[in-house]
């Protein structure tokens, strides 16, 4: 991960404390880049294999679902056929009332979720996903980002203390891709075509760009601050891009205090959905350790869990030279987490 220059912000409030440095940015779009290295080719191959396997698994699951529903339907028909007229009526009636109950529960949950999101809009922690980077991403990277955003929205909606979520820079290809998401037009989220710097011009002092390249470590979330996350899937090809953007705009930056709680096996650069989920978890628990351990996958950590800060190197030293999220693993994480979200029964109807 990149190292960073001195942060010129002397006005840091006590939620932010200094640490490492930023780096030169490679702004060339994917098409203008050098031929792929052996390592990158290997990754590409791995990615292709992953995609093929995923498609196969999806088809199998679809077929399994179809067969299951056919089996259940047949079973139901048989039960009805073997029942007396009175039993038939009772069975149909109880099925109807079960369905009604389920629908009522669902709409109750939806209502509660809307209440929480409405409250978050008024008093919640402002969190912005800056999606103004579509011109630097390939089609599959944009697709991946859109999936991550969908996941962020779902996680936030389920939280007991959701944040006030914004998407800024929603235009062009990014807007077109987001529009394709089912129900996106009804999402209870701020969608803003302008950049946050324009949309929130009246509160520039409150803006804090979260970036792993910052020399400032976040130690709490300030309700008055607006935290910005770079909506970027780039395998860290554009090292330091968000740090440089924030510095050019003259806004504050901060990185998550990961190094104070765990050792990472590679860099501390997380995906957009991981960062949003960590913030959401922190808003619920006010505990970084729980938030990191809940969200950061085991494979990204070393065996050493709690870092003794007095003995640890500075965070800039911990940033390895080479950065590279493995896309297939990242997608796998997202998929697994999606499954968990579906499988785990939710408390308080959330
Ligand atoms: C996949 S990263 C993008 C990396 C990109 N090369 C950059 O320089 O920002 C997505 C976003 O998540 C946020 N992020 C990731 N890891 C972070 C960390 N350790 N601390 C703070 N923010 C982080 C940043 O806002 C970042 O732009």
Automatic annotation (TrEMBL):
Stretches assigned to the SAM-dependent MTase TRM10-type domain: 113-303
UniProt enzyme class: transferase
Matches recorded under PROSITE patterns: SAM_MT_TRM10
UniProt entry keywords in alphabetical sequence: Methyltransferase, S-adenosyl-L-methionine, Transferase
Biased composition (Acidic residues): 1-11
GO biological process per UniProt: methylation
InterPro entries per the UniProt record, alphabetical: MT_TRM10-typ, MT_TRM10-typ_sf, TRM10/TRM10A, tRNA_m1G_MeTrfase_euk
Name of this chain's protein: tRNA (guanine(9)-N(1))-methyltransferase
């Amino acid at each position: 991960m990149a190292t960073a220059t001195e942060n010129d912000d002397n006005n840091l409030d006590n939620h932010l404390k200094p640490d490492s440095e930023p780096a030169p940015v490679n702004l060339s779009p994917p098409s203008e880049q050098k031929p792929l290295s052996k390592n990158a080719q290997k990754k590409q191959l791995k990615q292709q294999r992953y995609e093929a396997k995923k498609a196969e698994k999806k088809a199998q699951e679809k077929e399994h679902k179809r067969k299951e529903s056919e089996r259940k339907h047949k079973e139901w028909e048989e039960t009805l056929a073997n029942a007396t007229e009175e039993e038939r009526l009772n069975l149909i009636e109880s099925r109807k009332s079960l369905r009604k109950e389920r629908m009522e529960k669902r709409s109750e949950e939806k209502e509660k979720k809307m209440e929480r999101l409405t409250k978050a809009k008024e008093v919640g922690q402002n969190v912005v996903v800056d999606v103004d980077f579509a011109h630097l991403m390939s089609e599959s990277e944009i697709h991946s980002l859109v999936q991550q955003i969908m996941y962020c929205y779902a996680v936030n909606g389920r939280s007991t203390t959701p944040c006030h979520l914004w998407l800024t820079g929603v235009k062009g290809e990014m807007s077109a891709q987001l529009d394709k998401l089912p129900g996106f037009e009804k999402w209870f989220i701020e969608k803003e075509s302008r950049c946050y710097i324009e949309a929130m011009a009246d509160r520039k002092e409150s803006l804090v760009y979260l970036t792993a390249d910052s020399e400032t470590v976040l130690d709490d979330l300030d309700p008055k601050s607006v935290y910005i996350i770079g909506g970027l899937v780039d395998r860290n090809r554009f090292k330091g891009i968000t740090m440089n953007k924030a510095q050019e705009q003259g806004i504050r930056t901060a990185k998550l205090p990961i190094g104070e709680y765990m050792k990472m096996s590679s860099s501390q650069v997380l995906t957009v959905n991981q960062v949003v989920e960590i913030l959401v978890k922190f808003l619920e628990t006010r505990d970084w350790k729980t938030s990191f351990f809940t969200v950061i996958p085991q494979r990204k950590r070393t065996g050493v869990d709690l870092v003794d800060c007095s003995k640890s190197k500075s965070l800039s030293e911990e940033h390895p030279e080479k950065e590279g999220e493995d896309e297939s693993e990242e997608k796998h994480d997202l998929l697994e987490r999606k499954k968990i979200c579906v499988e785990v029964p939710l408390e308080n109807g959330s």
